[in-house]
Description:
Chain A is an alpha+beta fold.
Amino acid sequence: xxxxxxxxxxxxxxxxxxxxxxxxxxxxxxxxxxxxxxxxxxxxxxxxxxxxxxxxxxxxxxxxxxxxxxxxxxxxxxxxxxxxxxxxxxxxxxxxxxxxxxxxxxxxxxxxxxxxxxxxxxxxxxxxxxxxxxxxxxxxxxxxxxxxxxxxxxxxxxxxxxxxxxxxxxxxxxxxxxxxxxxxxxxxxxxxxxxxxxxxxxxxxxxxxxxxxxxxxxxxxxx
Amino acid sequence: xxxxxxxxxxxxxxxxxxxxxxxxxxxxxxxxxxxxxxxxxxxxxxxxxxxxxxxxxxxxxxxxxxxxxxxxxxxxxxxxxxxxxxxxxxxxxxxxxxxxxxxxxxxxxxxxxxxxxxxxxxxxxxxxxxxxxxxxxxxxxxxxxxxxxxxxxxxxxxxxxxxxxxxxxxxxxxxxxxxxxxxxxxxxxxxxxxxxxxxxxxxxxxxxxxxxxxxxxxxxxxxxxxxxxxxxxxxxxxxxxxxxxxxxxxxxxxxxxxxxxxxxxxxxxxxxxxxxxxxxxxxxxxxxxxxxxxxxxxxxxxxxxxxxxxxxxxxxxxxxxxxxxxxxxxxxxxxxxxxxxxxxx
Lengths: 223, 345
């Protein structure tokens, strides 16, 4: 009898395990795959004393999400999306970005910077892509010194950020002479207008960098 | 003599009542225990993985929608595949609309995206798997449910896109609002389905081993012809449950499909976008079907392990089915709670 119940217990444990594994597979914590791709460029705005006062962002969204985001906004029906027609969407986006810290991580000499509410928000349509621009002022202007680090990314990876191609990705406005910018890019450059196969593997590489906080890092050093 | 008879009838009636009352209490107790076990287990699982898991995805842009996929390093690979195929899909659509690519390539990429997109956990698969484990179901049934749910998802996406964009010239914000409403309905359906399944399975467990009540409602001469037999009742209940499963699993469209359809509209390639959406659904059905098959095999394995015709084996299987039903209920409640949290935050 005891042997019987032991065998029964073992059976049941096995049965429960089989079903538990099948169901638990469904319940693991989840994360997003990106539905939005942004090609970012930014300008660091300096003041007379050589301090950084603001970041001027310009984000170019992918065509598919752009089409989705602007649907129904062509109020005058001319087939174009004017800055006025997109003003509401721009404001909505910039306001919505507040709780995400505008996806902007700025460290000056190791200290994390805080920002004041953005200004000059505007959105344009450029060749089927929406471009969102806004000026993000630093709460306290600070001189970059030897190490200013800027990182534009979404840790939840709903939005896949990549820096624009070339040196134009990061510019310095009114910077003191001798400031140097260096950009660390992910393994593959952001997909532009290449053929599909190449693009596919680029996107794959880029996505495999998930979790890397240093995929799009900018370092600025000033004398 | 008559008095004695009436007295006996009363006594037996009362007996039956207390017995069924006890059964109800037992049934509710079983439900509560099953829900507690499943929620406890899932909470532990979430805790175990919380260290590795990044913060939950949020919706940063107005009109954008968050979606989910598997976590962990396997999750990263799946996500990489999903994003790559998704990019290929949108770019293929553009190439098609400008005459630079064929339809078959686009459909192939859409199909592949569907396969990988469905590879992460999602409530649809949880509902189908839970239902399959809770009920003894065949592979064919699992495949049919998966296929129907995926197709429903595509139909809803196309219908939403057509009605909202073409008829109402809706903005992304309105599209998002509609999806939230559909989502609420779908999650409520999951919870309701889970509740019905849990109720039924708790009842089965509670009555297990009770003597089968004799059919006394019908004397001789009572006409059965107009009453559906127990098999027909079962079948009707089955169909209802399966319709519920398909609705709960498939009524919420995936945001990828909505973006693709909006993009197709803007490229004057709506037909291609619709075709891509359905190719995506076939891919989704394949993956969901494979996971459903896994659930069916797990259930068969459990049945074999617990077999032997003993009472305790039957009881254990009934308990297992009850837990699977509670899993559907807890999933629904968790989804609703998540929606509530998102709305509040």
